[in-house]
Inverse folding.
């Protein structure tokens, strides 16, 4: 039966029956009638029918939510064990590896760390006990403690866990950090360098020795590991060309704060990236454990996830061929099939409430498409607490509200994870693997990342715990869809479906190809079909007339809203970003990876017809990719986006007027742009930099600038070269000439649309937050925000720019109520020069104040970091601050650069023009760049025909649903 056929009382009664805490109170088991009903309802909740009921009854749901909270069992014995809740989905873990937690006398319960560990978890990871520095003495000591002390230390911890049936994941064999002796420590060189003395041959020999010794030892009972993180955090955070995974890896000099000495050593006589394959190969020969690759910041950045997936796919294909030829050990899985070299991709999960779950779902799919499993390896989902440098929201009513919001985010996350589970409870059989393990990096607050855990303390479950025990029910009780919001969009006679998990930060994305002759996209609310109870609230068009040209798509942001949820701190909204574009090919150089004339070519907005001659590559002993002789000519699926290996001289027969061949305009580069696009990565470059009496373009850099008597500690700057409208990144000043001159991660900022909580002239305007993705002392991205007066944050009317709350130590993300310190507005971008001025605005406690982005020339950042044994930080002078100002005019003029092709008008039409808005909102204190809205545009007969076709398709779809 369909859920909508149930009566109201019955529906609510069944919803109550599905609650885990209600179920435990009634002591029902999985075979009981109620449990069976719960499973059936869980399936129904995935359909659209339930949403009509949920949206129609918000008041009733509020009552149910309150009742369920009151009915949660007070007896800890009745609190569900998480490992039992998810026994049909995935393993549940923590970092509580300590022999004392697994003694025979420990009884599962809630009254101690040990009791909670054996009750809730079936897998554990040592937080620090097995990182490379646990080999005391390094290569000079052939008998480290773990080989000699078999009855104590890490051996005893693992043995005790195994004795209680708890699996152990070893963390980690190869890492650039906490690995002082592997490779040998850096030393000063004769030419002023700072390098490990090991070269390729020495590093390769010792890497194999280290892994053989460690992995081999922990492949024996009773201290056998179930899995290993073989390599940890090897990729840069925001690579330009993710298909070229080799140049997406950390090198010996990039990123500045945490480069890789293994890569540095291998580069001296070999290829820097080969240590990766060598590490996995050595591990496979010496342990039967599951082999993982583990990384972070891949949840938001598609480029990093794609690079990781590209590497794993290639490694597994290569090892399959080599092992079949007798060059490697073959292990079989439970079905008798050869196991891949890399069994699992681990994504860490050091997150906060700004997590975009839609982007994370995209990452899961990217990894599962390689044929491996996915682990969530270091989970903590923290509330937004930051207020200023070293200051944050404290416990109290405000924290309680944040914990309710945290519960909602946990519920959405686990509903998503259950769907993609590797166990029988998963719902995606099209993938060979699934989500195989979820491990918290800790257990109770405050923990590694502040307050991000299901328990506030031993025996004190939070909303996050109850949300995790039954995520779908928790969302239903909150008046939210339990499995996201699915919408259908019609355009050009086609239908497109997308799902979002909803809320402030999630947004589903779609790429849609438009014909070459289209000048302006016609798209209205009539093209949008939503589930019952949701309606389109707004549509934003970027550019306002939705003009499209190759390299310049139109982005339509559709926001829908459902009934008000029971929890006031969250939103029942669904956001979709539809990008309409003409097919383009962006060509990219591949320094040190592809042999000429092969080149990478990114195809976007494919027409599904144009065929490309694609070359299969193979890698020689020198690490260079060459054409293998296997060539396939085929089209990229319509609307698709992918990167191919092509030869530029091969003809591409595409639609007339499009430039698909390689030339100066289709070569991807850091180009000047004159608009913001959704979730785009930019460099922010001063238009008026001065250094040592000379004019020199400089980019805003997430590197600390020391305080002086003229300005506070803030963010630094890095010189760049401008050639016309193209920015040319410079090689790290500490690096040799063999190092590719690629943009450092700390020069890149991701702009996200946001509204400031401040009242005043900009209250109705949308600005942008700037996120930086680097790994210094933090493993998650941070929003750039203004210091608010805490010690050291203000000097002479100049405020700090802060990205890590304490500039060098762990800190919380800036809180939502403090976003006036982080939402940047801008004056109108000059369409010719690209110049604008960026500023913040606050209106609190009677203070109405602009803070402009201002470049300063004081503050010398020393070359390298004396306190960091692997630092390759570049020395710098000057930086940027947030200066108190009367108006935005006092700020520094800056320009934006994005990695893209040059936009152009197809050869058979004049350049596109943007129709100015016919009406303007009331002017603020100073003109700023207004949010995009639909205000007309020039249309031709082809556009009208597409609009009519779309309406006809929508009518047909609606009739079919009836």
């Amino acid at each position: 039966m369909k859920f909508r056929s149930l009566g109201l009382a019955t529906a609510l009664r069944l919803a109550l029956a599905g609650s885990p805490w209600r179920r435990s109170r009634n002591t029902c088991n999985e075979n009981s009638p109620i449990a069976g009903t719960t499973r059936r309802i869980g399936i129904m909740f995935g359909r659209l029918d339930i949403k009509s009921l949920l949206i129609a009854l918000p008041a009733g749901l509020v009552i149910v939510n309150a009742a369920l909270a009151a009915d949660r069992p007070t007896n800890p014995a009745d609190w569900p064990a998480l490992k039992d809740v998810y026994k049909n989905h995935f393993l549940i873990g923590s970092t509580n590896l300590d022999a004392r937690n697994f003694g025979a006398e420990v009884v599962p319960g809630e009254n101690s760390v040990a009791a909670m560990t054996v009750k809730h978890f079936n897998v554990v990871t040592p937080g620090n006990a097995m990182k490379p520095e646990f080999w005391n003495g390094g290569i000079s000591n052939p008998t480290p403690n773990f080989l000699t002390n078999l009855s104590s230390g890490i051996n005893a911890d693992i043995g005790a866990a195994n004795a209680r049936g708890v699996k152990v994941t070893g963390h980690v064999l190869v890492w650039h950090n906490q690995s002082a002796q592997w490779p040998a420590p850096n030393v000063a060189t004769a030419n002023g360098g700072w390098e490990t003395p090991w070269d390729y041959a020495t590093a390769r020999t010792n890497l194999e020795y280290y892994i053989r010794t460690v992995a081999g030892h922990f492949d024996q009972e009773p201290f056998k590991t179930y899995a290993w993180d073989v390599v940890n955090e090897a990729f840069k955070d925001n690579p330009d060309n993710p298909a070229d995974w080799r140049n997406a890896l950390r090198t010996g000099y990039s990123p500045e704060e945490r480069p890789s000495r293994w890569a540095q050593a291998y580069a001296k006589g070999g290829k820097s990236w080969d240590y990766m394959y060598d590490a996995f190969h050595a591990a496979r020969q010496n342990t039967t454990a599951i082999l993982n690759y583990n990384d972070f910041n891949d949840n938001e950045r598609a480029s990093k996830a794609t690079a990781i997936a590209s590497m794993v796919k290639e490694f597994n294909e290569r090892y399959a061929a080599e092992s079949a030829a007798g060059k490697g050990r073959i292990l079989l899985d439970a079905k008798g099939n050869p196991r891949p070299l890399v069994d699992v991709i681990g994504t860490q999960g050091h997150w906060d409430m700004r997590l975009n779950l839609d982007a994370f779902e995209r990452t899961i799919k990217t990894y599962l498409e390689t044929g491996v499993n996915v682990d969530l390896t270091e989970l903590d989902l923290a509330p937004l607490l930051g207020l200023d440098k070293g200051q944050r929201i404290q416990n109290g009513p405000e924290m309680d509200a944040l914990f309710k919001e945290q519960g909602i985010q946990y519920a959405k996350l686990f509903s998503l994870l259950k769907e993609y589970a590797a166990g029988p409870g998963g719902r995606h059989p099209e993938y060979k693997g699934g989500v195989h393990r979820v491990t918290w990096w800790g257990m109770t607050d405050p923990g590694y990342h502040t307050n991000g855990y299901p328990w506030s303390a031993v025996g004190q479950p939070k909303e996050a715990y109850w949300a995790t025990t039954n995520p779908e029910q928790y969302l239903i009780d909150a008046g939210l869809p339990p499995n996201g919001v699915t919408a259908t969009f019609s355009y050009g006679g086609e239908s497109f479906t997308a799902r979002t998990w909803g809320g402030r930060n999630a947004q589903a994305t779609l790429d849609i190809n438009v014909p070459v002759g289209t000048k302006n996209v016609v798209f209205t609310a009539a093209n949008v079909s939503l589930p019952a109870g949701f309606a389109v609230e707004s549509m934003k068009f970027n550019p306002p007339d939705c003009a499209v040209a190759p390299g310049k798509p139109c982005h339509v942001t559709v926001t829908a809203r459902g009934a008000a949820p029971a929890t006031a701190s969250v939103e029942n909204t669904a956001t979709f970003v539809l990008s309409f574009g003409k097919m383009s090919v962006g060509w990219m150089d591949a320094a040190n990876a592809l042999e000429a004339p092969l080149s990478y070519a990114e195809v976007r907005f494919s027409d599904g017809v144009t065929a490309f001659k694609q070359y299969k590559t193979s890698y020689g002993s020198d690490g260079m990719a060459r054409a293998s002789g296997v060539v396939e000519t085929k089209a990229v699926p319509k609307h698709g986006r992918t990167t191919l290996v092509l030869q530029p001289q091969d003809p591409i027969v595409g639609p007339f007027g499009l430039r698909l061949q390689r030339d100066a305009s289709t070569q991807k580069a850091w180009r000047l742009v004159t608009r913001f696009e959704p979730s785009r990565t930019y460099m922010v470059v001063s238009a008026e930099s001065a250094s040592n009496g000379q004019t020199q373009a400089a980019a805003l850099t997430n590197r600390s600038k020391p305080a002086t008597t003229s300005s506070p500690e803030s963010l630094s700057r890095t010189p760049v070269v401008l050639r016309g409208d193209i920015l040319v990144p410079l090689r790290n000043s500490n690096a040799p000439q063999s190092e590719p001159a690629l943009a450092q991660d700390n020069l890149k900022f991701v702009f996200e649309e946001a509204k400031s909580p401040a009242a005043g002239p900009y209250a109705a305007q949308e600005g942008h937050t700037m996120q930086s993705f680097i790994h210094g002392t933090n493993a998650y991205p941070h929003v750039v925000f203004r210091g608010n007066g805490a010690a050291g944050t203000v000097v002479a009317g100049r405020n700090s720019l802060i990205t890590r709350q304490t500039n060098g130590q762990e800190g919380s993300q800036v809180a939502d109520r403090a976003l006036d310190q982080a939402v940047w507005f801008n004056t109108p971008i000059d369409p010719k020069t690209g110049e604008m001025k960026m500023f913040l605005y606050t209106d609190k406690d009677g203070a109405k104040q602009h803070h402009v982005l201002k470049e300063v020339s004081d503050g010398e950042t020393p070359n390298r970091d004396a306190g960091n044994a692997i630092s390759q930080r570049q020395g710098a002078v000057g930086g940027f601050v947030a200066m108190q100002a009367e108006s935005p005019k006092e700020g520094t003029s800056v320009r934006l650069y994005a990695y893209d092709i040059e936009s152009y008008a197809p050869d058979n039409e004049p350049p596109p023009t943007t129709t100015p808005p016919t009406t303007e909102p009331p002017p603020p204190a100073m003109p700023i760049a207004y949010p995009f809205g639909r205000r007309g545009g020039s249309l031709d007969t082809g556009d009208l025909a597409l609009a009519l076709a779309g309406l006809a398709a929508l009518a047909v779809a609606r009739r079919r649903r009836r």
Q: What stands out?
A: The first helix runs from residue 8 to 17. The two ends are 17 Å apart (CA to CA).
